[in-house]
Design goal:
The strands form three sheets. This protein has a seven-stranded mixed β-sheet, with helices on both faces. It has 14 helices and twelve strands. 40% of the residues lie in helices and 14% in strands.
Length: 403
């Protein structure tokens, strides 16, 4: 067996199952889960219909590069959304079966296995695929702790030069999971300068880009590169997905875009990897990328939900409206001294509400675990259910403080 598999840690939800294994939740309350970031809003009817109308595509093998029609739809969306100049659909865009598998697979393409000291830098806390991709590509993860004082951005300037010299791939997540923070143009300028100096590839995970709460949409990596005059998006690959934008996580449909030289090698890898998108899914994806009305309606539901839930929780937890995404990243010891793990376990036992301990989403690095004493709450259900969960959390937290 591949010995690198032994380096993989259990996924956060497996840890959560073990935490709850001996707990019998209070039967007086119906179960509410804020633990998993799985969109629960209904899939738009026109996407469902497009998929149903395209089932003849099941009779054909799909091309790994996807159809011209799909790549044209993706290019059109990128150009409209980020104000980009016309993209070359043949070399700068590649459909993928959800951003998750592509985020993992890119490391297998980018990392040089001859380099025994290779590093993959990633935010901490983080989406665990980044860590697994690093290990299974033969590299080591290097964790960049989020800093609440910097809107949860890491302090890139504190990273020693000898570390950057070993970094071959940098994972970013903007809007961030779990923090909801968005990188600024100045952040991107600093990161591009580091990439130019040390030669590493930037993988920009942007799957939460269409759920935001301010008037201005989150800045994307390719948008930042264009604004800074970086023609051809050197050493930059952006990832996006329909899962959150269009409420179709089961379709497994997304794309990568950016540096044509890297994408040429990535296409070669994927040809052998056997990860082509079904023609039926491609047709439904074209319909989704070409429509913005359903995205605006979806975003409006999240805005209403967060505007109602966040003030309630802020009474008892250290939490604020994020820049974007559908998570609240709450510090739980505002009123009572309690760990994130104990908070999650007792909340589940006493009020039948599931949240994810922040320490499960992070690693101890540079002397701290930046997820400690925080919990991630995914506000993915309908507003009424999220409000009920918030009311229970308020009651639970006040009871903790009183004791």
């Amino acid at each position: 067996m591949n010995p690198l598999l032994e380096k993989l840690q259990p996924y956060p939800f497996e840890k959560l199952r073990k935490l709850f294994a001996d707990v019998k939740p209070n039967a007086a309350y119906s179960p509410i889960s804020l633990g998993i970031g799985e969109p629960k809003h209904p899939t738009p009817a026109f996407i469902r219909q497009s998929l149903a109308d395209s089932l003849d595509g099941l009779a054909a093998y799909p091309a790994t590069a996807g159809s011209d029609a799909l790549r044209t739809a993706i290019a059109g969306w990128l150009e409209r959304r980020y104000g980009l100049p016309k993209l070359d659909i043949a070399s700068q865009i590649l459909p993928v079966c959800g951003s998750r598998e592509a985020l993992f697979a890119l490391a297998q393409t980018v990392i040089d296995p001859r380099r025994g000291d290779a590093l993959v830098a990633c935010p901490n806390p983080f989406y665990q695929i980044y860590e697994g991709a690093a290990y299974l590509a033969g590299a080591q993860p290097y964790f960049l702790n989020s800093d609440p004082a910097r809107n949860f951005a890491p302090d890139y300037r504190s990273v020693p030069a000898d570390v950057w010299e070993r970094v071959q791939l940098l994972y970013l997540c903007s809007p961030g999971n779990p923090t909801g923070a968005v990188l600024t143009l100045e952040d991107w300028k600093e990161l591009f300068a580091l990439s130019d100096r040390y030669g590493f590839v930037i993988a920009s995970d942007e799957c939460y880009s269409e759920i935001y709460f301010k008037d201005e949409a989150p800045l994307g990596g390719m948008e930042a590169a264009h604004k800074l005059g970086r023609e051809g998006y050197p050493r930059l690959i952006s990832f996006s997905s329909l899962s959150k934008r269009s409420n179709v996580p089961g379709m497994r449909s997304g794309f990568v875009a950016g540096d044509a030289t890297i994408l040429k090698k990535f296409l070669l890898y994927r040809t052998y990897h056997g990860s082509a998108m079904s023609p039926s899914i491609q047709s439904a994806s074209i319909a989704a990328w070409n429509d913005e009305i359903h995205v605006q309606e979806n975003r409006a539901k999240y805005i209403q939900k967060f505007n109602e839930v966040t003030p309630l929780l802020a009474e008892v937890l250290d939490v604020a409206l994020p820049d974007a995404g559908f998570y609240l990243w709450a510090k739980v010891d505002k009123l009572a001294s309690i760990s994130d793990v104990d908070f999650a376990k007792r909340l589940y036992a006493e009020y039948n509400v599931t949240v994810l301990p922040g320490s499960y989403l992070a690693r101890e690095a540079h002397g701290i675990n930046p997820g400690e004493n925080r919990v991630r709450m995914a506000l993915v259900a309908e507003t009424a259910e999220c409000l009920e969960a918030a009311k229970r959390i308020v009651e639970f937290t006040r009871k903790l403080a009183a004791n």
